[in-house]
């Protein structure tokens, strides 16, 4: 009996782990390929910071796998995790001060407006999903316009710049060698070898991207299979499970992406992750899920999930407006997140 109960849990955890690994590999190799192709490093940075693909993949898979409530729960649960757990832990562990541009705070505050408006009729249709998905683009454009006049960089900026710098350095070395020995057979052979190596590397990048896509597909299917069996075995509500357990496990890396930059004295990077993730969750993430399947919103969505989300968002924005997140503020946010878990399972 115990073994049969543990099997779906193991399948669920393996599926999520495979999705997270596959998405990280996918983003890494697509980013490197994009930089090599001359795509703007800055634009790439903003896009990578604003999207949490592993969470979107799991939500879409849950919706497609006849678990719409689980999928909907991940939208609110992942946002609450970032706002409550990630920012809260950062404040408790490493109190920080940072002057966040007011435009970003206003943009983040307004971002849930469309989702709230479309939710008023008690459902999110495929048309609603399309509107939410499209709405993410102007938000990214607004961030790009704001960032173009500021020194603040979003997550992965340093990594992307290092990739670009390495690429430029390698190109410069090849060009210098070619200029110095252009008339020698040895240089011709070296150039041919370099071209062959570049071709092989490009093929390897493509192969790894395809492997990551397969991993995302297989992992999401395993996670959905495990989730379905867990719901049946433990008699759990899909909305609550998606908002708590599934979101918590799938979003654990958000702790590192928010806390680690703060610990290293770069709180702007952590704040950028919070802003970008919030914009994504309430637009493109929710939209992609609704586009797969129409979502019916239960009373719990309006009684529990919306109030906790808006409350946590208001607190985080207020703390950032003041320019400080200390231990007291962090403790409040962690308490809100703990209360969110409790509210999901209280009768």
TrEMBL record:
Gene3D superfamilies: NCX, central ion-binding region. Residues 9-143, 206-343 form the Sodium/calcium exchanger membrane region domain. It is a multi-pass membrane protein. The keyword Repeat does not apply. It holds the Pfam family Na_Ca_ex. Keywords: Membrane, Transmembrane, Transmembrane helix. The chain crosses the membrane at residues 6-23, 30-50, 70-92, 126-144, 203-224, 230-250, 271-291, 297-321, 328-346. GO terms for biological process: intracellular calcium ion homeostasis. One of its GO terms (cellular component) is plasma membrane. It comes from the Archaea. Residues 172-182 have a biased composition (Acidic residues). This is Sodium:calcium antiporter. It comes from Halorussus gelatinilyticus.
């Amino acid at each position: 009996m115990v073994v049969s109960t543990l099997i779906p849990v193991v399948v669920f955890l393996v599926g999520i782990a495979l999705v997270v690994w596959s998405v990280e590999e996918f983003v890494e190799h697509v980013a490197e390929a994009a930089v090599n192709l001359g795509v703007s490093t800055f634009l790439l940075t903003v896009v990578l910071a604003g999207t949490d693909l592993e969470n979107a993949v799991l939500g879409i898979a849950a919706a497609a796998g006849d678990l719409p409530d689980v999928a909907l729960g991940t939208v609110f649960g992942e946002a609450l995790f970032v706002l409550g757990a990630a920012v809260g832990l950062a404040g408790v562990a490493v109190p920080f001060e940072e002057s966040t541009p007011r435009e970003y705070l206003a943009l983040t505050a307004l971002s849930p407006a469309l989702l709230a408006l479309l939710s008023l009729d008690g459902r999110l249709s495929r048309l609603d999903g399309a509107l939410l998905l499209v709405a993410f683009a102007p938000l990214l454009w607004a961030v790009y316009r704001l960032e173009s006049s500021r020194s603040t960089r979003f997550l992965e900026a340093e990594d992307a710049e290092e990739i670009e710098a390495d690429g430029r350095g390698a190109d410069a070395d090849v060009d210098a060698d070619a200029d110095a020995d252009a008339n020698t057979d040895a240089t011709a052979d070296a150039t041919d070898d370099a071209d062959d190596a570049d071709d092989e590397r490009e093929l390897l990048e493509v192969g790894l991207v395809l492997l990551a896509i397969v991993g995302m597909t297989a992992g999401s299917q395993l996670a959905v299979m495990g989730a379905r069996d867990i719901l049946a075995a433990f008699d759990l509500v899909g909305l609550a499970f998606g908002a708590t357990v599934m979101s918590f496990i799938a979003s654990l890396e958000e702790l590192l992406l928010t806390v680690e930059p703060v610990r290293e004295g770069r709180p702007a990077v952590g704040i950028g992750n919070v802003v970008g993730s919030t914009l994504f969750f309430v637009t493109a993430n929710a939209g992609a899920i609704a586009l797969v399947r129409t979502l019916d919103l239960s009373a719990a969505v309006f009684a529990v999930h919306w109030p906790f989300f808006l409350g946590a968002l208001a607190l985080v924005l207020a703390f950032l407006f003041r320019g400080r997140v200390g231990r007291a503020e962090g403790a409040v946010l962690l308490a809100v997140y703990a209360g969110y878990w409790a509210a999901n399972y209280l009768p």
